[in-house]
């Protein structure tokens, strides 16, 4: 296998974007091409989850490659639920590593806000099992809530811990120009004041409004290339050193231990093994915190902390910028935003900035090794990536 | 002669009890005061409502145009039995809500406009308005419509309003929904918040001046400005975004 | 007619599955449709639950109770709850009722009540 490097990256603001879907994919791609100093690529992957259903558009990759005037390069759209982004990066990795292509552009776009929030709730709920979950009114927040209730009871995690994740990620997002929510929140305002129940009502008990990610539009892009190409481009050498993916049962209720996220554990282990590192080597990580509980649980399942101790590390401030292992410096899905299909590429964008030392006010000092965890469905299809800066 | 015509045109308001001011803590930790304003405050508010007329998103434009006319009509005595409540954070105008009395027993809700997005500012202000009609004035029901889908979801579904489709609402003549006292009593615990009395320094600060909202909804700035600016030799798109962000911080 | 929700039992090894799958998860023999439908028991214990307030457009209610129940044969199912104050571990029993209606289609499923 050939080694694969990230040579360029770009992103849009994650917010409501009133632009055609293909432009949302094309802008970060233009930004990434400019960043890399390239004008041609061999192949294009476009990560997206809902174009057909939400935006009445199919064959998105053909539209994007033409919008960018990159024809006749090959182009495909990749759909793997909310893990589409990392899946597309994985496809790009395989294309370069295998020797099929030298330069691959992996862009992404989602435009959830084209429909109203009721329809978005339903759209995302279609990830669940059609006959055993969806018909009952199961939504992603409700799955996360049933999971959280068990988890909190078993490991002593409280609503305060969940709120602490939200406050931390909102604080980080204030330092990120591209984040969806530039909104300072406090524990007092969302948990302790007499008005907290109204400020921060339950979406699905025990998860509240500020435990859930916003509904965002957005796009992000990375360009992957061989070592030979990367060396010519004079950017810091960021190697995509490990990819891992694992799946779990479609239904939440079928998992032997319902508080385990085995797909996260498996995908992370593969990504670390391929890169030849351990979780303790990681300097900065982006975890899929569509719900605050997930940041805590994933931080354990990927191996940063022991099972059941993620919330204690959070209490000690180890996951803040400046802590032992800063998590979601971008604001995470919680505050940076969650344009479903684009999220995984957005996570990679943040890690590339961090490893290059270009993360401005939220820079993690001397970050050399970065990690992302992109979570599809409710933990039934997880893709993890490891990035290493080589000097 | 002219005085006589004015006498005919100018409605005489029925006496209603004033809205006792209240305050609450927001998710951000800021304290927000909700209080009633009189005619003398209207010009200050109009100034900040006017720019929203150009914001198409979430029907801000229609709502702002209508609210502007309602406030103006109140100010210049061309509407009967109207009241206006404002929500202020640190003196800044965060939300405006208004309505009027259709009869002694039935209220008519006009508009709820949040000038600060997020933090459920609009929800608090709307709840205060319902509290005014039902608890303070003592009405039996309030007729409501929503112009925006956000408003519809929030009010019609959260409160579970009853249909009064035989009654055209004054806003656009569309079928009305009704918040009855019984429904309000059910929703009270989760939706109506606020503490009274407002500590005097907080209330005085709010009354002193209605300050402009620091981050009101605006017509879309170029949301892809950062990316577009790479191809914009003047860089103005990016600069204007940066300035906007710096003002926020 | 009594309505049932079925589990699917592998004809080779006896493993029960809910929901249906086309290949047995235990013996893994790729013999399509070699399953016997077996009605799921109606009684069980509540494993976890939630009240959902943000619902898709098909549901015109302010909140909906959902839970995962461990049935007395050890199978787990997701279902709706009509239980005023649910508690983890409580005994529940199901009725098969309409759980979702959209346009002309009705979906039946398990609705749990206090046992």
End-to-end gap of chain A: 21 Å
* Apparent shape of chain A: globular
* CATH hierarchy: architecture of one domain in chain A: 3-Layer(aba) Sandwich
Oligomer: heterotrimer
Q: C-alpha Rg of chain B, in Å?
A: 20 Å
- Secondary-structure element series of chain A: EHEHHEHEHHHHHEEEHEHEHHHHEE
What is the helix/strand order of chain B? Answer: HEEHHEEEHEHEEHHHH
Number of domains of chain B: 2
Which fold does the CATH topology of the largest domain in chain B refer to?
Aminopeptidase
Strand order of the largest sheet of chain A: 3-2-4-7-1-8-11-10-9
CATH class call of one domain in chain A: Alpha Beta
* Assigned CATH class of the largest domain in chain B: Alpha Beta
Average predicted local confidence, pLDDT of chain A: 96
Helix content of chain A: 25-40%
What does it look like?
The complex is a heterotrimer of chains A (391), B (249) and C (115). With 391 residues, chain A is an alpha/beta fold. Chain A has a domain at 4-116 and 215-232: Peroxisomal Thiolase, Chain A, domain 1 (3-Layer(aba) Sandwich), CATH 3.40.47. Chain A has helices at 21-36, 51-54, 60-67, 84-97, 117-125, 140-155, 159-173, 187-192, 196-199, 227-232, 262-275, 292-301, 310-315, 332-335, 343-356, and strands spanning 4-11, 43-47, 74-78, 103-111, 202-204, 207-208, 217-226, 237-247, 284-286, 369-376, 381-390. In chain A, strands 3-2-4-7-1-8-11-10-9 form a 9-stranded mixed β-sheet, sandwiched between helices. In chain A, strands 5-6 form a two-stranded antiparallel sheet. In chain A, strand 5 (202-204) and strand 6 form a beta hairpin. In chain A, helix 1 (21-36) crosses helix 3 (60-67), helix 4 (84-97) packs across helix 15 (343-356) and helix 7 crosses helix 12 (292-301). Chain A is globular. Chain B has 249 residues and is an alpha+beta fold. Chain B folds into 2 domains: 2-218, Gcn5-related N-acetyltransferase (GNAT) (Aminopeptidase, 3-Layer(aba) Sandwich), CATH 3.40.630; 223-249, no CATH class. In chain B, 39% of the residues lie in helices and 22% in strands. Chain B has 9 helices and 8 strands. In chain B, helix 2 runs antiparallel to helix 3 (60-75). The longest helix of chain B has 16 residues, at 60-75. Chain B is globular, with a radius of gyration of 20 Å. The model of chain B has no long low-confidence stretch (mean pLDDT 87). With 115 residues, chain C is mostly beta strands. Chain C has 2 domains: 6-39; 43-114, OB fold (Dihydrolipoamide Acetyltransferase, E2P). Chain C contains no helices and 8 strands. In chain C, the strands form 2 sheets. Chain C has a 5-stranded mixed barrel with strand order 4-5-6-8-7. In chain C, strands 2-1-3 form a 3-stranded antiparallel β-sheet, with no helix packed on it. The radius of gyration of chain C is 16 Å and the shape is globular. Classes of the chains: A alpha/beta (391), B alpha+beta (249), C mainly beta (115). Chains in contact: A-B, A-C. The interface between A and B is large, with 39 and 35 residues.
């Amino acid at each position: 296998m050939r080694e694969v490097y990230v040579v360029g990256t770009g992103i849009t603001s994650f917010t409501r974007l009133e632009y055609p879907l293909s432009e949302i994919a094309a802008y970060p791609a233009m930004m990434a091409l400019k960043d890399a100093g390239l004008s041609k690529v061999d192949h294009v992957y476009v990560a997206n989850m809902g174009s057909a259903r939400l935006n009445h558009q199919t064959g998105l990759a053909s539209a994007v490659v033409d919008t960018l005037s990159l024809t006749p390069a090959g182009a495909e759209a990749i759909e793997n639920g909310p893990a589409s982004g990392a899946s597309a990066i994985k496809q790009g990795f395989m294309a370069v590593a295998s020797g099929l292509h030298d330069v691959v552009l992996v862009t992404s776009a989602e435009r959830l806000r084209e429909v109203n929030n009721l329809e978005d709730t339903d759209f995302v709920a279609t990830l669940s099992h059609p006959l055993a979950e969806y018909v009952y009114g199961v939504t992603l927040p409700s799955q996360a809530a049933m999971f959280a209730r068990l988890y909190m009871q078993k490991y002593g995690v409280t609503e305060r811990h969940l709120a602490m994740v939200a406050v931390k990620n909102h604080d980080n997002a204030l330092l990120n120009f591209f984040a969806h929510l530039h909104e300072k929140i406090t524990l007092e305002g969302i948990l302790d004041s007499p008005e907290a129940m109204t400020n921060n009502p339950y979406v699905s008990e025990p998860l509240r409004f500020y435990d859930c990610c916003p509904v965002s539009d957005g796009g992000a892009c990375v360009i992957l290339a061989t070592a030979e190409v990367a060396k010519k481009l004079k950017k810091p050498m960021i190697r995509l050193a490990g990819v891992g993916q694992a799946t779990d049962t479609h239904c939440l209720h079928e998992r032997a231990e319902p508080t385990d996220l085995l797909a996260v554990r498996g995908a992370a282990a593969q990504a670390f093994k391929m890169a030849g590192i351990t979780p303790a080597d990681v300097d900065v990580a982006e975890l899929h915190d569509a719900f605050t509980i997930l940041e805590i649980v994933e931080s354990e399942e990927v191996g940063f902390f022991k099972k059941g101790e993620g919330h204690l590390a959070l209490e000690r401030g180890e996951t803040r910028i400046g802590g032992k292992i800063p998590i979601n410096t971008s604001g995470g899905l919680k505050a940076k935003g969650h344009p479903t299909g684009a999220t995984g590429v957005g996570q990679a964008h943040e890690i590339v900035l961090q490893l290059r030392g270009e993360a401005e006010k939220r820079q993690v000092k001397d970050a050399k090794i970065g990690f992302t965890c992109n979570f599809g469905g409710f933990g039934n299809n997880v893709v993890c990536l490891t990035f290493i800066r080589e000097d | 002669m002219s005085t006589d015509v004015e006498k005919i045109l100018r409605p005489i308001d029925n006496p209603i009890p004033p809205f006792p001011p209240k305050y609450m803590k927001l998710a951000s930790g800021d304290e927000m005061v909700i209080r009633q304003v009189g005619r003398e405050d209207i010009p200050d508010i109009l100034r900040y409502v006017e720019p929203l007329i150009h914001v198409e998103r979430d029907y801000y434009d229609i709502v702002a145009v209508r609210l502007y006319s309602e406030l103006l009509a109140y100010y210049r005595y061309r509407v009967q039995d109207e009241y206006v409540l404002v929500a202020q954070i640190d003196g800044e105008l965060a939300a405006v809500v208004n309505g009027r009395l259709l009869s002694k027993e039935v209220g008519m809700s006009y508009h709820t406009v949040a000038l600060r997005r997020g933090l459920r500012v609009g929800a608090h202000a709307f709840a205060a308005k319902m509290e005014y009609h039902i608890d303070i004035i003592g009405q039996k029901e309030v007729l409501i419509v929503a112009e925006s889908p956000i408003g519809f979801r929030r009010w019609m579904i959260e409160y579970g309003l009853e249909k009064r489709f035989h009654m055209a609402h004054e806003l656009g003549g569309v079928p009305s929904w009704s918040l009855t006292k019984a429904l309000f009593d059910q929703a009270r615990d989760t939706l109506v918040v606020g503490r009274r009395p407002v500590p005097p320094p907080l209330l005085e600060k709010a009354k002193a001046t209605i300050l402009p909202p620091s981050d009101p909804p605006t017509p879309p700035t170029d949301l892809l400005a950062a990316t577009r600016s790479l191809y914009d030799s003047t860089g103005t798109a990016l600069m204007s975004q940066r300035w906007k962000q710096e003002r926020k911080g | 007619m009594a309505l049932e929700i079925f589990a699917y039992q592998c004809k080779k090894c006896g493993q029960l599955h809910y929901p249906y799958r086309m290949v047995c998860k235990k013996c893994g023999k790729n013999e399509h449709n070699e399953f016997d439908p077996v009605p799921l028991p109606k009684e069980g214990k509540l494993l976890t639950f939630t009240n959902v307030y943000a619902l898709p457009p098909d549901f015109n209610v302010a909140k909906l109770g959902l839970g995962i129940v461990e049935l007395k044969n050890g199978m787990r199912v997701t279902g709706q709850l009509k239980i005023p104050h649910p508690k983890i571990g409580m005994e529940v029993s199901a009725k098969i009722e309409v759980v979702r209606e959209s346009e002309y289609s009705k979906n039946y499923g398990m609705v749990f009540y206090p046992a």
